[in-house]
DNA sequence: ATGTAATCGAGACGGTACGTCAGGTCTTACC
DNA sequence: GGTAAGACCTGACGTACCGTCTCGATTACAT
């Protein structure tokens, strides 16, 4: 996986990129986010701080790259079954946000990247769009099969899915379990019209 | 509004609480979250740092109290119209997360409070439960009117609403407009069964 | 003993003067000079800080009064024996500076009082002049007995005595023992002329 | 002059050592000891506080190094004249303790270093032993010339000299003038036997 | 015996400096 | 020439005391 947040030549990266990103994940897992300082990563990676700063503009960018490597954004296989495919998509999302390291870092990551539009857009690219595109493909298959309304708002579907899962994971202590997964899946498969532009013509 | 995050006597608070919370909001609006340091707030409030530290355990607690005062958690009026009431609820949520200061601070707030379960639970209490209870009341009215399924999962409804709105606001650059509000409202009013425990095919 | 450093009415002093000075000495003995804060003394004495500040202008003044009560400045008895009397004087000085609390506090006391001429002069009065006068009386008896030169510089004698003892105690780790006492005594009794204005007429 | 109190590599020191020590002396001279804070020195030196803390464990160590550079501990030239050499030694001591900065700082320095035996011993090494050794050499020359008793207690001589001078300077307002210098010198040259172990009556 | 004033305890307050820490930049060797 | 090491400046952190202050409660004296 390329280094989305590294500021080096589009191709490159430090010789010790792997060592550094591994060290970042190690520190994160072992000592938690508050202990995840550049100095700690440099020390754990046996690397000078400057090597890190040469390639990543700040801590958040480094962490983003470190997490990107464990963030699942794989394609949804064509199972012939719309419900199964969408359930697969929801499960993948839940997996991502259930990962201890990712969940612990996401708010801080967001907080750190928000003031930097350039980094924020790379963040979206890395963590959202790639996965979304894969899920959108599955949704489009469902539309073609006639299982979902032809004008389904795929963005809205994904915002609802990811939003709900992330919110549950961070803001409440409710577990993100299979019941939730099934609920979110059926919300679309059995009520796709709710996600179409004009939800319905019921005139009140 | 009481000081949920102050560590003082349940009633009390510093004599200069108002000055301090005002200053916190001022700094936040004027200079953004990264500049929102305790020292800056103390200076802006014309107060000693120790006065702040005497009453709030850390920066996040202070900010949480400052934001709590502009966070809307009002009751949903009984309008006799379920759709209108729920739309009101969604609008209130959107308003909260559209507020510049709240949106800019929420991720950092979450990041700062997550490692402190005690504070995190006060955060939930302050920012979520009170508003949720008000919305739940409106949902229950809808159930009693027969507009919503009797076994509606009010928590799920709210997680979907708040999750989607927050996610849109922070993670995408899609605006949180009235179309979204209407969508989210109709998702429930026209498809309440999707939010009932067994999202079966019981078409009401 | 009056309160030399209290700023109250010449007579008075706080009702709890004894409690406070005792507490100061207790804290000093138990926790050492660095822990000897006004707040610690107030707490140990069960007294409000303001009560202390009402009567003593600062920490050093308080400590000075506390130590003055254990500082020996008694009269030298007329023993009929000049050497014995002077030895008594030297022993008294050594006793004072050997006292753990006094030795630990003197430098800090000096450091704190030096910039306040008014307090410094009270310090001299309390800790030096009263004792010096007693010793000077003994020296004068020695002069009258013919054991010491008629023009003995009693101030110089005392500066040498106190200076040497204090210096040894603070700046070196050499003990201030009876050998030193005897040395300092004989320096005067056997060589009084060295302390007379014109040390001698040796023309080279 | 090496940095006796710096905790760095025995040789080294911060790149900006000179800037820092100069700034310390400047602040001391210009604003007096109470204003001599680490923050003030850092600001005056255009240096970060951490740079100072990296090399000196506390304020006293820094000041000790700053003063060490103006503390005279030079060798006493062999003048062939014992009295002249000793007078030179006494004058050097008086010079040191007459220096405004040194006198203002010594008590505070002692107060600050006393609780730290390690620093206190470096203090002795820096401010006392080096000078004492030079003076001891002069005293030994006097012994060899037969001008002073063969068993002269050189330590006692120096304690008397330094003690008396320091005491006069700090505790009394008597000036430390040439009369005192001459007195202290003659106390030894004309009465050396008073400083020999058994201060007997051997009148030489 | 009661009212008035001084004194007291408690501790909040605005400050200053502390010593620590991490961020991000820069310099110096080394390989 | 990239890199490891780490010195450096910066600036916020959270703590400890300072000396001032306000607040009732408790004296103690004078009526």
Describe the structure.
The structure is a homotetramer of 204-residue chains. Chain A folds into 2 domains: 14-68, Homeodomain-like (Arc Repressor Mutant, subunit A, Orthogonal Bundle), CATH 1.10.10.60; 82-199, Orthogonal Bundle (Tetracycline Repressor, domain 2). In chain A, helix 4 runs antiparallel to helix 6 and helix 8 runs antiparallel to helix 9. Chain A is elongated, with a radius of gyration of 19 Å. Chain A is mostly helical and 204 residues long. Chain A contains 9 helices and no strands. The model of chain A is unreliable at 199-204 (pLDDT under 50). Helices cover 63% and strands 0% of the residues of chain A. Chain B binds a DNA duplex (31 and 31 nucleotides) through helix 2 and helix 3.
Query: Biggest sheet of chain A, in brief?
Result: none
Give the overall average pLDDT of chain A. 87
| Overall geometry of chain A | elongated
This entry's quaternary arrangement is: homotetramer
The level-1 CATH class of the largest domain in chain A: Mainly Alpha
Query: Could you tell me the strand content of chain A as a percent range?
Result: under 5%
What low-confidence regions of chain A span 5 or more consecutive residues with pLDDT below 50?
199-204
Portion in helices of chain A: 55-70%
How far apart the termini of chain A lie comes to 50 Å
Rg of chain A to the nearest angstrom? 19 Å
CATH topology of the largest domain in chain A: Tetracycline Repressor, domain 2
Count the domains of chain A: 2
Q: Most extensive chain contact?
A: A-B, 42 and 41 residues
Tally of contiguous helical segments of chain A: 9
Proper CATH architecture of the largest domain in chain A? Orthogonal Bundle
* Number of beta strands of chain A: 0
SSE arrangement of chain A, N to C: HHHHHHHHH
**Structure class of chain A:** mainly alpha
């Amino acid at each position: 996986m390329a280094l989305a947040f590294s500021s080096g030549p589009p191709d490159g990266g430090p010789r010790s990129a792997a060592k550094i990103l591994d060290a970042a994940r190690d520190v994160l897992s072992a000592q938690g986010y508050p202990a995840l300082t550049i100095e700690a990563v440099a020390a754990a990676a046996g690397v000078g701080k400057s090597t890190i700063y040469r390639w990543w503009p700040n801590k958040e960018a480094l962490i983003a790259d470190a997490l990107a490597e464990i963030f699942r954004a794989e394609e949804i296989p064509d199972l012939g079954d719309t419900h199964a495919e969408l359930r697969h998509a929801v499960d993948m999302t839940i997996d991502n946000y259930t990962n201890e390291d990712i969940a612990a870092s996401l708010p801080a990551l967001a907080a750190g990247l928000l003031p930097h539009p350039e980094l924020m857009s790379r963040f979206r690219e890395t963590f959202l769009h790639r996965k979304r595109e894969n899920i959108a493909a599955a949704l489009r298959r469902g539309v073609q099969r006639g299982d979902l309304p032809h004008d389904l708002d795929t963005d809205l579907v994904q915002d609802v899915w990811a939003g709900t899962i992330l919110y549950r994971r961070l803001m409440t202590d409710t577990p993100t379990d299979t019941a939730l997964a099934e609920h979110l899946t059926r919300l679309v498969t059995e009520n796709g019209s709710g996600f179409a532009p004009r939800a319905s013509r019921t005139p009140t």
